[in-house]
UniProtKB/TrEMBL annotation:
It catalyses: precorrin-2 + NAD(+) = sirohydrochlorin + NADH + 2 H(+). The keyword Transmembrane helix applies. Pfam families: NAD_binding_7, Sirohm_synth_C, Sirohm_synth_M. Residues 161-231 form the Siroheme biosynthesis protein Met8 C-terminal domain. SUPFAM superfamilies: NAD(P)-binding Rossmann-fold domains (SSF51735), Siroheme synthase middle domains-like (SSF75615). Residues 133-159 form the Siroheme synthase central domain. Pathway: Porphyrin-containing compound metabolism; siroheme biosynthesis; sirohydrochlorin from precorrin-2: step 1/1. PANTHER family: SIROHEME BIOSYNTHESIS PROTEIN MET8. The keyword Flavoprotein does not apply. GO terms for molecular function: ferrochelatase activity; precorrin-2 dehydrogenase activity. GO terms for biological process: siroheme biosynthetic process. This is precorrin-2 dehydrogenase. It comes from Postia placenta MAD-698-R-SB12. NCBIfam families: cysG_Nterm.
Amino acid sequence: MATDTSSFTGGSLLLAWQLKGKRVLIVGGGDVASGRIESVLVADALVTLIAPRDGLHPLTKRFIESSDRITYHDRTFAGPEDLVDVDMVLTAIDDVETSRTICAMARALKVPINVADIPPSCDFYFGSQIRSGPLQIMISTNGQSPKLANIIRRRIENSLPEHAGEAIEKVGQLRNKLRERAPGVGGELGKRRMRWMVDVCTAWEMEDLAALDGEMMAKLLDDGWEYNRVPKVQEVGGRPRQSTKTALQKISGLLLSSAAGVIVGAACTALVFLKRRA
Ligand SMILES: C[C@@]1(CC(=O)O)C2=NC(=C\c3[nH]c(c(CCC(=O)O)c3CC(=O)O)Cc3[nH]c(c(CC(=O)O)c3CCC(=O)O)/C=C3\N/C(=C\2)[C@@H](CCC(=O)O)[C@]3(C)CC(=O)O)/[C@H]1CCC(=O)O
Ligand SMILES: NC(=O)c1ccc[n+]([C@@H]2O[C@H](COP(=O)([O-])OP(=O)(O)OC[C@H]3O[C@@H](n4cnc5c(N)ncnc54)[C@H](O)[C@@H]3O)[C@@H](O)[C@H]2O)c1
């Protein structure tokens, strides 16, 4: 049966671009450039920054002083020679004409470019970002409303599961240990490895995954992976957690006992009062 692909349009490709050791040229040193620097440093890039010193944002200055991954040139953009051996270009300058010229040069050399605020000169857009350890969420409105992206980001931040970043970190460590035990790519072993990881992530609460330590991981692999089963948290030395229900019951118990306390207190006061009157 034919698949209807007519709605497969109007979006952009969302990726997690690996910049480790790649050279990113940033032109401009203002507020926007400082955000760009932060974004690419987080991705382990090597930055070349071209911007006159007198226009540097205080944050940009601090980044230049504190990071040995930034090569700084105190000048304006010079021409195509600045694009040699560059893997990505980001411009954030207050000069639309120069931005467009840099864009044309980068495209001639097939170097991907983002020009802040000029969508037709962008091969990719930035988005509103959430980071918590290895968890990275990007909200993109595909150029339609950056402010709404920012507002939606705040809402998502407030609704994220607690401990998500730590849980992902620990599961990453567990996967690495599992691959040491069961190495190789693909095949029956690969299928079993993936199924087991899916089962662990599904059966365990985020909070319990976040609490995994080296010893628990070893036990999880010994008693779980080796027998193709998923042990309970307590079986591998994890602390049994209070279920939500128990916590709720505790709170209502507390409320009830304080209500009872108030009633008893009121009764005593009334008794004392009546006794005095008598
Ligand atoms: C998300 C964020 C990431 C970042 O830049 O790091 C980002 N813009 C942010 C803020 C922001 N930018 C603007 C406002 C003012 C309010 C408003 O206009 O809405 C605010 C809000 C504010 O300042 O509070 C003005 C603006 N921006 C663009 C244009 C040009 C145009 O639309 O034509 C104009 C109009 C200029 C004019 O009117 O003259 C263009 C782009 N801005 C993008 C990204 C890309 C698409 C993002 C997406 O798809 O959603 C894209 C296409 C290219 C790019 O730059 O990559 C960051 C929020 C980070 C955060 O806070 O979390
Ligand atoms: N996409 C976004 O999120 C967003 C948000 C706000 C502003 N902007 C746009 O991004 C651009 C930069 O904004 P900003 O607030 O950082 O501006 P800014 O004025 O603070 O900084 C501009 C920087 O560019 C440098 N510069 C100017 N010409 C240069 C050249 N030829 N070579 C090298 N450096 C040069 C200046 O010295 C300065 O450091 C503006 O066009 C602005 O409209 C984008």
